[in-house]
Amino acid sequence: MLLAVIPCAFAEGTLFPARGGNSDAPVLVVYSSLDEPLARPMIAGFQAANPDVAVRYEEMLTGEVHDRIVHETDAGQKTADFAFSSAMDLQVKLSNDGYAQRSDLPMSEHWPQWANWRNTAYALTFEPAVFVYHKPSFKDRKPPASRAEFVEYLKSEGEAVYGRIGTYDIERSGVGFLFMARDQEQFGDIWTVIRAMGAAGVKLYSTSSAILERVADGRFVLGYNILGSYAADWASRNPNVGIVLPKDYTVVMSRIGLVPQAAASPELGRRYLAFFMSKQGQEILSRELQIAAVSPEVSGSNTARTMRALLGAQLKPVPVSPGLMVYLDQVKRARLIARWNDVLRMQ
After folding, report:
1. What is the phi/psi pair of residue 250, to 5°?
2. Staple partner for 248: which of 31, 146, 290, 301, CB 3.0–4.6 Å?
């Protein structure tokens, strides 16, 4: 569905005019880390149901979403009506520190308990960390399906795969750090995996696309802990990209939505959040954005409901709770990154 788009002269971002044609329509302001082209189907669906509302979409980095809301609120200014970010820790910090307001919505009491923190911060997506692999490189054998198999593959292939493994640089990638921190909690032998990747000349990147591009063209044979939503999108367009949800355990992260305490139009923010959580909004998420839906009302392969039915306890969602803020502890963060670098350098 096409949207009329006007670049904002008065602020960074993109303005989607109200469909009803009213130039004085109220404007919903969204701060989001999701790429604007990916966000368009959700905006289109929302405006189809709310033709009296214009939307100003401001795309920024996850840290910028947090910092801008804090800065504007502390300065006594109004801020976004809705914030959507993949930095789970920073979103929960906004909620915990009083920068988000309570949103009691039609789906609130039906939302999974792990995905709702006091009706202020809601997990809206269900995105596993996966192994990705170059299919032609595995035509004669199965790709690794667990961390133990991953290590065994690297050791058995030796020089043949040296420099052809990719994962996130946990110093520069927020989601990469989150996945590594959860690995350390879930898997007592995780440093054996990191050591094996170091010995295999692992390459580190801050973005998913840099790794997936190299898996797709065969420069890499494997990618470790790659965000499943991006992997699924690449696999849908590149037949050489394969995906494995590790059978020992699969960490699942989520993008979190909230209405800031200092929102200029909190009722519009809640209306957008309610649409995001509705059956229609979650279906747009899973079918058009290729990001798995959280809502228990939505069925289909690209949903938490189906994944849980198939994989059960293998899935380890990151709960939306203040426990996430441990990843913001600078001492603990520095300690984990230092050990990561030391183990990789030792090889």
Report:
1. -125, 110
2. 146
First to last CA, the chain: 51
Question: What is the C-alpha to C-alpha distance for residues 223 and 315, in angstroms, rounded to an integer?
Answer: 19
Q: Using alpha carbons only, what angle is made at residue 228 by residues 125 and 344, rounded to the nearest 5 degrees? A: 125
Tokens of 341: 């670098």
Q: Residue 31 and residue 70: Cα distance in Å, rounded?
A: 13
Q: How many whole angstroms separate alpha carbon 221 and alpha carbon 168?
A: 15
pTM value is 0.87
User: Closest by alpha carbon to 252, among 197, 328, 304, 177?
Assistant: 304
DSSP class of 299: -
User: Mind listing the pLDDT tens digit of every residue in the chain (347 residues)?
Assistant: 445 554 443 346 999 999 988 889 999 999 999 989 989 999 999 999 999 999 999 999 888 999 999 999 999 999 999 999 999 999 999 999 999 999 999 999 999 999 999 999 999 999 999 999 999 999 999 999 999 999 999 999 999 999 999 999 999 888 899 999 999 999 989 999 999 999 999 999 988 999 999 999 999 999 999 999 889 889 999 999 999 999 999 999 999 999 999 999 999 999 999 999 999 999 999 999 889 999 999 999 899 999 999 899 899 999 999 999 888 889 999 999 999 999 998 75
Phi, psi (deg, nearest 5) at residue 265:
-135, 75
244-275 b/e (C-beta count within 10 Å ≥ 16 → b): bbbeebbbbbbbbbbbbbbbbbbebbbbbbbb
The torsion angles phi and psi of 15, rounded to 5 degrees, stand at: -100, 125
Cα within 13 Å of Cα(201), Cβ side: 10
Backbone phi and psi for residue 225, each to the nearest 5 degrees, phi listed first: 60, 45
Structural contact between residues 166 and 223, judged by C-beta atoms closer than 8 angstroms: yes
Q: Is the CB of residue 89 less than 8 Å from the CB of residue 324?
A: yes
Greatest Cα-to-Cα distance within the chain, rounded to the nearest angstrom = 66
SS3 call for 158: helix
Give the CA distances from residue 323 to residues 108, 238, 326, in Å, rounded to whole numbers and listed in that order: 21, 37, 6
